[in-house]
Amino acid sequence: MQYKILASDYDNTLVPFGESQPRPAMVKAVKKLQAAGGKFVLSTGRAWSAINRKGQLGGIRFDYAITCNGACVVDKNGTIAAEHPMTNEEMYALVDFCEDYNYPLQFDFKDASYAYCEYDILHKYYEQMNSVGLDCVDGEDQDRHLIDMPHAAFCIFPEGALERFHEKYGHLGLHFVQAGGQLPDGSHFYDIVRGGIDKGAGLADLCEKMGLSLAEAVAAGDSANDVGMLKVAGLGCCMSNGTDEAKAAADRVIGDVREDGLAALIEELWFDGPKAEPSDRSFGSAWETMER
């Protein structure tokens, strides 16, 4: 079967962490795919506001984007094709819990990510990361959701906090995805969406919108938040620099992000090039493995 779309994660799949945009070989491969009629889908934990930045993709223009870990699917113009926003009850539970313990918390709306708790900590954290597109605005007035509801949230929890949250609010069924490693003090990063939502659900929403089957989709990723789409796609591919969890969910392992592994996969699948072989290379620190 000829694959019709390629859904790619951003960090450490399309773009090596710490670099500002895809490498030239990756840009060339995606443009070649699109010229041949394939659709390129950016699939990310980031919100639309974090990927809608000129020059961020080095000349790549995605056809669709699965944002907020599947909670919001948009076309190339940012028009929403499918969405699963949080409810008031879910939002208030997160705010109450994080205010009680002074944990950093932001909500991802379409226009920006608003820090409802501990803005200064989050803003400083993004400055240290120095990753293009990732930042938040001061939302501690806690009124942005009066316009519309967020699609996702992001928090930093110390050890044991997630268990305490579930003890009190587990009935809400929120889906916490650990976003990579941890800070030196042992705190963890979490992306949060509604129960049942992940990149796999976003890919299913998009395929339905496009009139395609999931069997016609290729997905590429490297970490925990990619597992859902790696499992449901017709072909799920994990980068060789990916986590053990992502590799286990994938149909195959391809080359390292720093060796243009995804570009080689495109050449293989769409243009009958040589098989995209994996490498033994691995990399990443606690800061570098924070996936969004």
Automatic annotation (TrEMBL):
Which InterPro entries did the record assign?
Cof, HAD-like_sf, HAD-SF_hydro_IIB, HAD_sf
Q: What are the protein's UniProt keywords?
A: Hydrolase
Q: What GO cellular component entries does it have?
A: cytosol
Q: Does the keyword Hydrolase apply?
A: yes
Gene Ontology terms, MF aspect: magnesium ion binding; pyridoxal phosphatase activity
Query: What EC number(s) does the entry state?
Result: 3.1.3.74
Pfam families linked: Hydrolase_3
Q: Which residues form the signal peptide?
A: none
Q: Which PANTHER family match?
A: HAD SUPERFAMILY HYDROLASE-LIKE, TYPE 3, PHOSPHOSERINE PHOSPHATASE
User: Under what name is this protein listed?
Assistant: Pyridoxal phosphate phosphatase YbhA
Gene that codes for this?
ybhA
